[in-house]
Design brief:
The protein has 214 residues and is an alpha/beta fold. The chain contains 7 helices and 8 strands, in the order αββααβββαβαββαα. The protein has a 6-stranded mixed beta sheet, with helices on both faces. Strand 7 and strand 8 form a beta hairpin. It starts with 17 loop residues before the first helix and ends with a helix.
């Protein structure tokens, strides 16, 4: 699949990953009211900050059709974005809640929900052309924020760079060859927050780092 011909967003019924397609079809039966499809990016198409997540959550974005909407990770992410002036409105865990992002667009490394929230390396690789196209469609982006190591690795590979030159670490700041900046954060998952690996203060600090480099 040539990168130049790949759209920035996967089609809702994307057929590329058989395991994810099977899971999607099963979820259509189990949760018929859910979105159950490849989830499009959300936010400002002219944003200077691109946030890269992992994949839709089964009862989050897979249910609502909007990244990080409906699960715990979204509670922290959207609270923090609004707190730092990157969002407006009231986040109410619904795609029609009127919540908007300012100078931010959120995308995912994998656009379809994987079983147990764990995409395989092959699925991450298969979906990467969509992330590459998303990046190419936003030349104005100055900072990319990777939520978790999988998102970090996929973003680095999407830019054709070597992982060994850009090691993942919370609050790590990487200056890229093209002058843009890649910032890392632990994923804002319920597990990371409940175990204390990531606190609200730590995540707000990462957004401050991003703001400073815009």
């Amino acid at each position: 699949m040539a990168t130049q011909t790949v759209p920035a967003e996967a089609p809702r019924e994307c057929p590329l990953c058989p395991r994810l397609v099977d899971f999607r079809e099963a979820n259509k039966v189990k949760f018929p009211s859910y979105f159950n499809g490849a989830v499009e990016s959300f936010g400002d198409e002219n944003a200077r900050l691109l946030i890269v997540g992992l994949a839709p959550g089964l009862h989050g974005a897979n249910q609502t059709g909007r990244p990080f909407t409906g699960d715990y990770a979204g509670d922290l992410l959207y609270y923090a974005l609004k707190e730092k002036g990157f969002a407006a409105g009231t986040y109410d865990k619904r795609p029609d809640d009127g919540f908007t992002l300012r100078d931010v667009l959120i995308s995912n490394s994998v656009r379809c929900v994987p079983p147990e929230n764990k995409p395989t390396p092959a699925e991450i690789n298969t979906c990467r052309p969509f992330l590459i196209s998303r990046m190419q469609a936003m030349p104005q982006v100055k900072v990319m924020l990777a939520l978790g190591k999988i998102a970090h690795d996929s973003a680095v590979k999407a830019m054709g760079l070597k992982l060994s030159a850009y090691p993942f670490g919370h609050a790590a700041v990487h200056t890229l060859p093209d002058g843009r900046t890649l910032v890392d954060s632990y994923h804002c998952s319920r597990y990371n927050v409940n175990t204390g690996r990531l606190t609200t203060e730590m995540f707000l600090n990462v957004l401050d780092i991003c703001r400073e480099r815009l």
